[in-house]
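pipeline/complex-builder :: batch 7 item 3
reading input block
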Amino acid sequence: MTLLEVRGLGKHFSGLHAVDDVDLDISAGRITAIIGPNGAGKSTLFNLLAGFYRPTSGTVRFKDRDITGMSPHRTVAHGIARTFQTTNLFEDATVLDNVLSGRVVRSHSTVFDAVLRTPRHRREERLNLDKAMAALEFTGISEYRGEIASSVPQEVQKRVSIALALATEPELLLLDEPAAGLTEEETGGFAQLIRDIVADGVTVGLVEHRMSMVMSLADHILVLDHGKEIAAGTPETVRTDPQVIEAYLGADHQEQEGAG
Amino acid sequence: MTLFIQQLFDGLALGGVYCLAAIGLTLIFGVLRIPNLAHGTLYMLGAYVTYFFLVTVGVPYVAAIGLAAVVLAVIGVLLERVVFHPLRNAPHTHHMIAAVGAMFFFQAVAQAIWGADFRRMDSPISGSVTILGAQISWQRIVIVVTAVIVLGLLTWFIKRSIHGQTIEAIEQDRTGSSLVGISPSRVSMLTFGLAAALATVAAGLVAPINLLAPTMGDALSLKVFAIIILGGLGSLPGAIVGGFTLALAEVMTSTYVSAAAGEGIAFAVIVLVLAIRPTGLFARAVQR
Amino acid sequence: MTTSTFSPQRLGTLLVALALLLAPLTLGGQEYVLRVLTVGATYAIAVYGMNLILGLTGQLSLAHGGFFGIGVYIVGLLTTDYDWAFWPSLLVAVVVTALGGFVSGVVALRTREEYFAIFTMAMGFIIFLVISRWESVTHAHSGVSGVKFPEGFGLLDFSEPIVMYYLVLLFLLGAAYVTHAVRRSGIGRTLVAIRTSEDLARSIGINVGLNKQLAFAASTTFAGLAGGLFAAVQGFVGPSAASIDLTFEMLMFILVGGLGTVLGPVVGTFIVLFLFEFFQDFEAYRFLVLGPIIVALVIFAPRGIVGYLNAFVGKLRSRGTGAGTGSGGPPEHRSSDTATDVKETL
Amino acid sequence: GGGGSGSDTIVIGYSGPLSGGAAAYGKNIQDGLQLAIDELNNQGVTVDGEQYRVELRSLDDQYAPDAAATNAQRLAEQDDAAVVFIPHAGGIQAAQELNSSRTEFLLGAYSSDPKIVEQGNELTMMIPPSFESYAEPFVDKLTRNGESRLGLLGTASEYGQEWTKLVTQEWKSRGGQVLSDNSIDYGTVSDFAGPVSRTLAENPDVIFLGGPSQPTAVIIEEARRQGYEGSFLLMDQAKFEEMEEFTDPKNLNDAIGVKPVRNYDDPGTEDLLDAYAEKVTKKRPVTSEVALNYQSAAIVVAAMEQAGSIDDPTAIREAIPDAIGEVGEQFHVSGFPTEITDAGHLRNQDLEAAYRTPDGEYEYLPIEQPDE
Amino acid sequence: MLTVRGLSAGYDAVDVLHAVDVTARAGELTVVLGANGSGKTTMFRTISGILRPSAGSVEFDGTRLSGLPADGIVKAGLAHCPEGRHLFAKMPVEKNLLLGGYVRRRNRRRVHELLAHVYELFPVLHDKRHHPAGTLSGGQQQMVAIARALMSDPSLLILDEPSMGLAPLVTAQVLDAVAQINRDGIGVLLAEQNAQAALRIAHHGYVLAEGRVVLSGTATDLLDDPEVREAYLGV
Ligand SMILES: Nc1ncnc2c1ncn2[C@@H]1O[C@H](COP(=O)(O)OP(=O)(O)OP(=O)(O)O)[C@@H](O)[C@H]1O
Ligand SMILES: Nc1ncnc2c1ncn2[C@@H]1O[C@H](COP(=O)(O)OP(=O)(O)OP(=O)(O)O)[C@@H](O)[C@H]1O
Ligand SMILES: [Mg+2]
Ligand SMILES: [Mg+2]
């Protein structure tokens, strides 16, 4: 089943075509990767899907509903969550509070509930705490819950940002370079986490330069260059595509992969 | 028509004064991200110190302005060291309040030394010329010419001289600047000194056509903020365009609409510009 | 440490509340001090408004004095020129400042940080100009005299200064409680999230625009309410009640007290006001002393008095219970720290 | 009672602008009061058989009404001041809210705004002549040669606006033409040339202007520089003697305004001028702000002596009519009041204004004051 | 030669670097490996004076660097190309480079020689010299950052994860350039996640873990070390 359907999507920044006429289908329950050289438009594409940018052309449909140009707080409510290329957290709050913030979109109590401390308010606070703890357990960082977010190791911070995204109960999770700056060993851990997320029923969109990770995880890959699709398909087809090798992977890539 | 020419000249002279004062403010903002609300009091002190050299000591007009600019540069540097340097990592709310504290202090100092009553300072440049039927005083012509020269030199300094570029570099990336060997501390001091000196030149030029009072900087303070907002915080060309635009708008509005409207125009301009372009006219969009 | 539910914060709140309740009794008919207290309490209500927008969302609104002035003038003019009763006038003041905040927030909140501060400064100044120049309606500099006292209920006669004091105090406690409740709830978390990173807040589904607008409206409402009460306390009001100086005074109160804290506004307001009164004897020279004191306060006590006490208590507590991890409690005191402790040598 | 005010001290309270834009004005009044108090102490003050020293206690209100009211209450309660002087209409009105209901004190109101005695406050003593007195004779004088066009260039303060309205009415009632209103805020405008040229562009015969003396002088100078040769109608806030210090006195020719203090030949005038030069400054002239408050401080203390009370504001107020005649001659400096109206206005029947002729001479003209 | 002895540093009074000893020999390429958050960046920032050490010393060619401000350290011949690049985004590429030569500003000829040299090393920068640095692609920006550091005519260049976030092709290009710089006689201290590629061009290496040096040796030794192979080479 197609969860997200992108048709003819484009985004121009004063003359620059950052994303240019892109089509993409993300199927439910699978991992779709987007790769391409620096500045190819991958992050911009994510920004368009999550509503951070308003497209200059094209449409985005999510669960058969048109969400083109919808603002982020609504796309999140519909079930799209994302992480940022540079890890972005509420730095002076604790890890748990970070993840609790992700519950806001699923909460319904108002200021008046808070001021009057209604039962609904208390019930919801309890539920939120449970869900947040569950997200921390899932990402394997519950022991850090009381620490200030900026003080925990980078790898943990990256996991926090995923837990935060998961706390919004998404159906589609867009990860922008989750493995940037990780060692090989840590990368393996992240690959496993992503598999777990998919197994849990969440569809994943992945932008990543770490080819070992992309090739082993992705069910489908879209390759962008200068905002345009230059190839699409399974890891095997993409890996051997001469255009992809020239624009992105480089000639000695095969050899390097082979050595690993 | 005569009235229009007259007002045009008045507007240009006022614009020159505004620019000189606003540039310092915008540089300080660019380098230190400080909305220096005490800027108007530096201008006021500049006027009084000029008065001191000119009237009390008795040196010639141009020398008096020059000496005062030096004195104020030192005061500006002290202000940076004592007040803003310790706050360099604090949020801008703290800067604002510290600036208000400094403003209180400087005003009290001026009042303690020179008293609360108005002072008058005569410049040696008197008389006027008739241009297209309008009476233009030489003092105003001097203001416009000085402003143009100073602005030209300054633009050259910032854009061409490597010392000027350090200011721009710090504006754009503090860590990057220190890694190429620029001392942010020294540049902050340089900026404050320069800003205070420029404000002094503005004050020294305008004082002869007006009066000195410890509160003379208050009204200016708000206007120069309007100007640097109009031009985009931290933008040098923005401050220049903004300064002249606002001065002309002010003069023309009060001539052809009403005096009260002229007074409010600065604030109306801020509100309008920001409502349409939330980051000012000259600011560039940043990437997320 | 024992396992009692003893909380220093709760104790502190109790002490402050008690001190305010009992203060008039210890004055022995000193109406001047009572006046300073009452006026201080009205300011403190407005400062709680500022705390909501600045302490929780990080936006510095310099239009605050202006909205206070709108409250002042609505109550002032309605109860005199239009002969309304006090309570409906106050209601109008609250509604108008709430709506005014919400509507102007649409435009104001498009701007960020310094731009927002300066935008609102201009807004505040325009409000001041309108009040001080719109002669036919506001009487400009002549001001408004004979503002009505609130109509009493039964035995309560609000023309008695002490009764008026308790009325204002009641509103003040309400303001403090609302702040407390908001901070503790998801709404508080939402606002703090916005303060820390708007992009991230957006990415987790927070409607940043609407929430900021609501916070802004809430803050202006507090200002309007405070202004309305102020008008009744003073009896006579002039345009200085809407001036930008007032905004900066309020900002000073909140910084001295402690930004984002529940007790900060009230503690800061009273301390600074009494400092001001104390230094009155120095006449014009008082700013030679007050100026440096203000500067020293923000340099050496950037978190404010309550901020420090909280941090101190926090430290004691984490020492008492061993590791600070896993407490899982709400962000109560962590999020109140606005001072960045970056120790870079730049 | 607060510190220092022992039983042998009479505290006179004063709340005025001692810092900020109007500080010079506030300081003038403070000086006038202080000089009077020094002189009174010199002579000795005896109330109800007991010797007292008089002391001035000043607080700064920066011209803000609410601060003035708080200060007044503090002075009355903490310092036991039975009389508090306030020199601005807003502060006066705020204090009137207070002394009519909460804290009793006699209000020494230095403001020529007639509103302050129209409120019917029983504890107010209005010190200067009402500005309403001036409009008619001023206009009268300046329309003698058929002048018909009036330019408006007053200060934008409340007070300036009231004046502008009054003069406008008066001018129109004689069929004259009132040109556009170019009122500006004298304190914040950084270049007066614009407003002046705008006013001159309409070819006025007479220009109404005035605010603090110094900027007024600068505006007059600018107008003359731009070639204006008509007359000036000056509101009472601007003083000839101060303006002469700020601009070539020639520029002030053909202008009408209040009479300079130094031109009075009252018994105490010379002494006050000397005392001011000696104790305050030689650089500035004595203005009516100094002189009128000098007189009224003496009246208040005389009223205490008359009433035999230093702390009953009502009794002191009631004793003023009698006290006026008892004040020593040395306190008669610039048209000493001859009466206090029931509404509380100190008045001199023989009030005069001054016209500076095109030759730079002063002529005096009698001012008729409206009934209250 | 750079000698780091017993260096400790951190944030908020909490050390994240504990008594580290590291030596970078003149003209050699020394690589620092370590997991995320192991303290590489902290060490580099402390060496280049952005961060103040809480203990220990840094010596460079016999002069003591610890205690000098960042600008003094650049003058001493040590250039730091930081994590996150810290370019002057709105200035044209060439101005970025010229500012890189700020400490050599008195010797104009040398600055222009250096400029010609970095353009030779990164020809694409010459094409883009009038473009604002912020508009360049990630890899090109990284090149600007490296070139800017070279403009101070350093004898030691500190590079903090130059390949971070770069596409595989560009990563290879950047590391080639680093090797070239080192061949030109400039010492390099490099932190790099791409351990294999880094060790291939390095002479010596250190491994950091939780702020301590846990392993050091020649590049070939480290390439053969089983622990390194598992944790950093993904074998
Ligand atoms: N807000 C913006 N304003 C102007 N240009 C932008 C903006 N956002 C992105 N761009 C430009 O759009 C292009 C695509 O950028 P994008 O960040 O999507 O690339 P990317 O594929 O994610 O690259 P990388 O792998 O380096 O992260 C770049 O040239 C970039 O400079
Ligand atoms: N500004 C900061 N404030 C507080 N703690 C910090 C700060 N920067 C880094 N840390 C902490 O210091 C530790 C070491 O970080 P550092 O950045 O030096 O590691 P690194 O080895 O460079 O990691 P990476 O591979 O991610 O670049 C980490 O635990 C990190 O969370
Ligand atoms: Mg990207
Ligand atoms: Mg690092």
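note: Confidence is low (pLDDT under 50) at residues 321-346 of chain C.
queue -> next item
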